[in-house]
Amino acid sequence: MKKIILAALLLSAASTGAAFAGEKCNVPVAEWQPREALQTKLEADGWKVRSVKTEDGCYEAKAIDAKGNRIEASFNPKTLEQVGSNESGENDEG
Question: CA–CA separation, 79 vs 86, rounded Å?
Answer without folding.
Answer: 20
